[in-house]
Amino acid sequence: MKEIVIATKNKGKAREFKTFFAKGNIVAKSLLEMERFTPDIEETGKTFEENAALKAEGISRYLDIPVLADDSGLIIDALDGRPGVYSARYAGEDKDDKANMAKVLEELKNTPMDKRTARFICMLAIAIPGKETLFRTGYCEGRIAFEEMGVNGFGYDPIFIPEGYSKTLAELLPEEKNQISHRKNAIDQLEGLLGDLSHV
Ligand SMILES: O=P(O)(O)OP(=O)(O)OP(=O)(O)OC[C@H]1O[C@@H](n2cnc3c(O)ncnc32)[C@H](O)[C@@H]1O
Ligand SMILES: [Mg+2]
Predict the structure, then answer these.
(1) Closest C-alpha among 175, 126, 166 to residue 20
(2) pLDDT tens for residues 21-77?
(3) For the chain, what is the domain count?
(4) Is 150 left (phi over 0), alpha (psi -120 to 50) or beta?
(5) Do 26 and 15 touch, CB atoms closer than 8 A?
(6) Which of 41, 48, 87, 144 maximizes ligand 1 atoms within 8 Å of its Cβ, making it the mutation to test the pocket?
(7) DSSP states of 95-153
(8) Which atom of ligand 1 lies closest to the CA of 169?
(9) Is the CB of 43 under 6 A from ligand 1?
(10) What is the band of 200 on the pLDDT scale with cuts at 50, 70, 90?
(11) Does the annotation mark 71 as catalytic?
(12) Which residue, 6, 14, 17, 35, is the most exposed by fewest CB within 10 angstroms?
């Protein structure tokens, strides 16, 4: 069975990558399941691209194998693009999803529905030893709800209503989210690259 290492410690992301790659008979292995030690990569970049590259290249160099990384986040128009690159730590260093959502909802409490437009972005970086790092991007357009709804998914899913839906991503089934998400749209663009990425 082929295997691709995903440089993430986010359980929700890891679960989604596993589902996507299982369809192609590829095992997506996250850093949460590595038997070997892997260094923590500081996300010091100012863009999704820089942070995705830091994660993919850092782990690829360390393990000397191809590595895929995902830097993602929520871009809200009424907040001038925040939380953006700082999505994971919007309400503080402890990466608390509930606190992050509460902060967004508070900041948008006087913003009417038609001005609550937002999008998720997923920036994938593909680092292969001895080659230039490649990038693929996917988006998911939508709006920010007035309150949390639903328990599926992870992160900001309970407050994100994708375009064309009246439910949040956390109210959709995982397979429904996985048909329209920013991550799905980015992965669709990997196409022929998957062969170069897998090893074992
Ligand atoms: O860096 P890794 O280890 O991959 O894990 P992370 O959680 O720190 O991930 P990011 O740096 O890419 O930050 C992305 C944040 O954006 C949010 N996010 C990304 N994709 C999401 C999705 O599909 N649904 C909901 N929230 C998402 C989520 O809260 C993440 O904490
Ligand atoms: Mg991170």
Answers:
(1) 175
(2) 999 899 999 999 999 999 999 999 999 999 999 999 999 999 999 999 999 999 999
(3) 1
(4) left
(5) no
(6) 87
(7) --HHHHHHHHHHHTTT--GGG-EEEEEEEEEEE-TTS--EEEEEEEEEEE-SS---SSS
(8) 24
(9) yes
(10) low
(11) yes
(12) 35
Given a cut of 90, is residue 140 above it in pLDDT?
Answer: yes
Q: Are 122 and 72 in contact (CB under 8 A)?
A: yes
Among the bound ligands, the one closest to the CA of 48: 1
Q: Which long-range contacts (CB under 8 A, 24 or more apart) does 17-26 make?
A: 17/68, 17/70, 17/183, 17/187, 19/174, 19/175, 19/178, 20/178, 20/183, 20/184, 20/187, 21/194, 24/194, 25/1, 26/1, 26/2, 26/194, 26/198
Q: How many Å apart are CA 91 and CA 87, to the nearest integer?
A: 9
ipTM over 0.90: yes
Domain containing 34 equals 2-197
Tell me which residue has its CA closest to atom 8 in ligand 1: 88
CB-proximal residues (5 Å) to ion ligand 2: 88
**CATH number reported for the structural domain that contains residue 71 in this entry:** 3.90.950.10
153 lines ligand 1 (CB under 6 A): yes
Per-residue pLDDT tens over the stretch 69-122: 999 999 999 999 999 999 999 999 999 999 999 999 999 999 999 999 999 999
